[in-house]
Amino acid sequence: MKRVRVLIRPKKGLLDPQGRAVKEMLEEQGFKVGNVVVGKMVELDLEDGEDVRSLVERFIVNPLIEDYEIEET
Amino acid sequence: MRFAVCVFPGSNCDYDTYYVIRDVLEKDVEFVDHRTRDLSRYDAVVIPGGFSYGDYLRPGALASRTPLAESIGEFAERGGLVLGICNGFQILTEIGLLPGALLTNLNMRFVCREVRIRVENNQTRLTKKLEKGDVLRIPVAHHDGRYYVPDDQLEEMERNGQIVFRYVDNPNGSVSDIAGVMNREGNVFGMMPHPERASEDLMGSHDGLMLWYSLISD
């Protein structure tokens, strides 16, 4: 088994209303904040030999609206 | 004409849709659940609104990987008539039967109210009983209804007449005010407003009826 972590964020260039809402809240609290991105993380324990990239692209992310990174530990 | 109404775990407009088809249109209709593998005995498939699989991962994402979704793909491939309403629209984009995606509303709020939508193309199986430019009052109820499609694809859809409805007063930030679209072949439709909630005077509007009448007319 290997542990695979998929980090998913809104595609670059697409408006991220969650990130914007968090940024505005932090600014109201007095923080000086640049860009904020809110995404999600999917952690999978997979049998060795599974094709991680194809699994992620076909079933976990929507490439039209999401960017992702795969971390294998 | 026999309709199928799709039921996924978390669908919640399935009975409303079934009711309108059976009691208002007086057509044959059956529920089909997420394990269904064959839709060949139906003439039209409606994917109703709701929160299939709790909107986990993304709205429509898990439903789009079920046996029923696969059968909807085959049904559409053979030219079958498919209408996705709200979550049904989200599911159809996740399956890839319709272009684009539905993102979280711009104001991050669930919007539940009547909106006005304009018919942009009346030469379709869903709008042929209407005139281009007709404005319909139909409710929306969604959190993730902001239609998005990249610019180049939008132009192509425009050229092909695939933009079926536009909001008069855009409630969610959809690109180009888009409320409903169809595929290039003209047999798969998706819309965020709920025509099944505007199909009797008792409901406050019967403007959705003309869509159903269009669907069932030859």
Structural description of this entry:
- The complex is a heterodimer of chains A (73) and B (218).
- With 73 residues, chain A is of the alpha+beta class.
- The longest helix of chain A has 12 residues.
- Chain A is elongated.
- The model of chain A has no long low-confidence stretch (mean pLDDT 94).
- By secondary structure, chain B is an alpha/beta fold.
- Chain B has a single domain, classed as Rossmann fold (3-Layer(aba) Sandwich).
- Chain B has five helices and eleven strands; from the N terminus they run βαββαβαββββαβββα.
- A nine-stranded mixed β-sheet of chain B has the order 2-1-3-4-11-10-9-6-7, with helices on both faces. A two-stranded antiparallel sheet of chain B has the order 5-8.
- The longest helix of chain B is centred in the N-terminal third of the chain and has 11 residues.
- The mean pLDDT of chain B is 97.
- The chains are: A alpha+beta (73), B alpha/beta (218).
- Chains A and B meet through α1 of A and loops of B.
Give short descriptive properties of this protein.
heterodimer, A: 73 residues, alpha+beta, three-stranded antiparallel β-sheet, 29% helix, elongated, B: 218 residues, alpha/beta, Rossmann fold, nine-stranded mixed β-sheet, two-stranded antiparallel sheet, 5 helices, globular
Topology:
The complex is a heterodimer of chains A (73) and B (218).
Chain A: E1 2-10, H1 17-28, E2 40-46, H2 52-60, E3 66-72
Antiparallel strand pairs in A: 1-2, 1-3
Chain B: E1 2-7, H1 14-24, E2 28-33, E3 44-47, H2 67-77, E4 81-85, H3 87-95, E5 101-103, E6 111-119, E7 135-142, E8 146-148, H4 151-159, E9 163-167, E10 178-182, E11 188-191, H5 209-216
Parallel strand pairs in B: 1-2, 1-3, 3-4, 4-11
Antiparallel strand pairs in B: 5-8, 6-7, 6-9, 9-10, 10-11
